[in-house]
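Consider the following assembly input.
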Amino acid sequence: MLYRENGQFKTSYQADQQIFPIAQDRIGVWLLVAFAAIGVPLLADEYLFRAILIPFLILALAALGLNILVGYCGQISLGTGAFMAVGAYAAYNLMIRIDGMPMVFAILLGGAIATAIGVLFGIPSLRIKGLYLAVATLAAQFFWDWAFLRIKWFTNNSSSGSVSVAQLDAFGWRIDTPLEKYLFCLIFLVVFALAAKNLVRSHIGREWMAIRDMDVAASVIGIRPVYAKLTAFAVSSFMVGVAGALWGFVHLGSWEPAAFSIDRSFQLLFMIIIGGLGSIMGSFFGAAFIVVLPIFLNQFLPWAGSLVGLSISTAAVAHTELMIFGALIVFFLIVEPHGLARLWSIGKEKLRLWPFPH
Amino acid sequence: MGFFLEAVIGGLMTGMLYSLVALGFVLIFKASGVFNFAQGAMVLFAALAMARFSEWIPQWLGFDNKLLANVLAFIAAMALMVVVAWLIERLALSKLVNQEGITLLMATLGITYFLDGFGQTLFGSDIYKIDIGLPKDPMFLFESVFEGGVLLNKEELYAAVIAAALVIVLSLFFQYTSTGRALRAVADDHQAAQSIGIPLNRIWVIVWSVAGFAALVAGIIWGSKLGVQFSLSLVALKALPVVILGGLTSVPGAIIAGLIIGVGEKLSEIYIGSQIGGGIEIWFGYVLVLFVLLVRPQGLFGEKIIDRV
């Protein structure tokens, strides 16, 4: 960045171990949060909230959870959609089956149930590694897809198979407008992002990274793989489960199992790969990129077509979108396999030396 | 008993078809260490090409002979798959050498999206037919042993025979030709293979072309069974547990695992699925794989995974 840490002396261990050791960073993060909470509501209109900002917040939360598992602990999971679904359906069942259940507790408990399921499906990771594990986690995806479709108890015997939440009410705060929904999700995201940032720089985060880098060596120096892997699965599925509950309750309102299909799992995996594995900030970059890209293509392609005098049918737009999306992903992986977060840190390094790079 | 046997034979046939798709995965993984998620998209792409070419070529050339049309369409589709393989190697894989497994997996996912969109842009997105003249009528076996005999779908029988033949041809190709030997060398150790003068890039194009060939055969058989449509690419998801169960590096493993999962799926659907709501074949294979992997983390026939610090 344009500023440096010169002149900021630490006189206590506490000051030395802060999240953001440089004062400018601290101020910057506060400004960012303030902008998200105050500035964005003033600038954005309803469409922007509904189509981009709310999905971005929720998917960023899910990507954050997945990044802990894949990016920090190195366990590839293709079952994220299933854990989101477990969170959503668990929260829904808690809401309708327990009278007077506050919605916030239902969402958090939904996350807790997703944690239990996540740990259960994480147990094979103690034996299986890499690509084998990735396919094994697909078992979770297909099993839960099936369960929420076929077992009527989960959907409260609804005939259409879809479930809906009538109204959102957080401790007396009626959440009706898109703006309120946005703020509600923002609170969750900020709290969880802070928690995640702190977790990954604590001893447990270091254990995850040691397991990721080389698990045999890690266990030789006294890190318990069982504990490290299962905590990663637990923390990750909790965040993913909460994100799933928010996706169902706040973004969709009424949903079917298809909302959490395998495509969702791939989408989240794309977010963290493009954003940057093992980076909190990367999860945000990736989520923003993947949320905005299809909307942008959707608007841009017909417009570009009309420029050259072609009218493109909706089917053709959909197919071209797929092509461009796929091509962009391959392109990104070739140009920057470490994701947008790496670009960000390269930019920061460059700015540090600017304007005298030698 | 007759009913049980019917289910088992039906399962074996389906399993053979799964193996056919699984084979494509194994070939590529063996030779380049890439877990090719795009195999399903390649099946769809190849089937679309085959279906449309067999429709277009008679129109372009102005003749009316089904056999000739199918043969020409097969050649054209195969040529297209080779071009696709070459492009994938040239534009994506050669630039991603030495990346981690997950990055390569993601790249093939990107290729999946691209091929899905590209195939449907090029060939249209309706449901098409592939008619290569497989007989559709059912036949009965063991009529003297059981009452009513065992119902067998002739089409599936032919498909299974074709699949088995393909497997044998590929095994021979791998075992006895010099190209096959080069492929195995590359699979064993990229650097060592390169240092004795095996051209890596060409080998990869060949492998992807062979996988494209397997995809084309699978696409034709599945396509004539189900019709060529987008859902064909989901066949890959059914083949994934087969690959993993057999072990990522084993060709015979893919066949045997295919048969196991095919039979297991049918029987579990009939005897367990009816008790708990049906449709369990979508996850049966995966859950079976999960439990097998707990005992054998490398799959049934995969190479033993050895960790070194």
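Chain B touches chain A through 52 residues (CB under 8 Å). Ask yourself how this observation constrains the way the partners meet.
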